[in-house]
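Our preliminary data section would be incomplete without showing what the modeling component actually yields. Below, a chain of 150 amino acids is followed by its predicted structure, encoded as tokens that our downstream tools consume directly.
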Amino acid sequence: MVTCKDTCAAIIALHKKGLTGKFIAASKIAPQSTVYRIIKNFKERCSIVAKQAPGRPKKSSKRQDRLLKVFQLLDQAATSAELTQEWQQAGVRASARTVRRRLLEEGLVSRRAANKPLLSVRQRSPFSTVKDDGVKTDPTQEVILRPSHM
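Predicted structure:
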């Protein structure tokens, strides 16, 4: 699909000179369906600029999105709910989900640390250690053995 502004301008210029859409398409500028579509849109809008796409407007501007990124970088441990409250104080009324979406668009991905599994008694026994004072300890119990040579 050809939508380059230069191509559209060339098609409209040829059409204004009186050339037909079939002749313009034959000059290999664009396919015939595209030529006719561009001419039709030009007649309707009197412009080659594409109309604005439909959709819901964003809740925040680019400047407000940058401010949210600054909030997140200042406190990287902040949750999206906390960032939402800070953002609301700055004048943006948005949900926590919107905050996460905006941070994702900025390349800031949130991750939750995985829970480390607990070690069983059998797994803990090889990890018993000797402290600096010569007392052997087990992470699960206090003093187990006091050397006799002390």
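Strands lie at 129-130, 136-138, 141-145. Residues 82 and 106 are 18 Å apart (CA to CA). Preliminary results of this kind motivate Aim 1 of the renewal.
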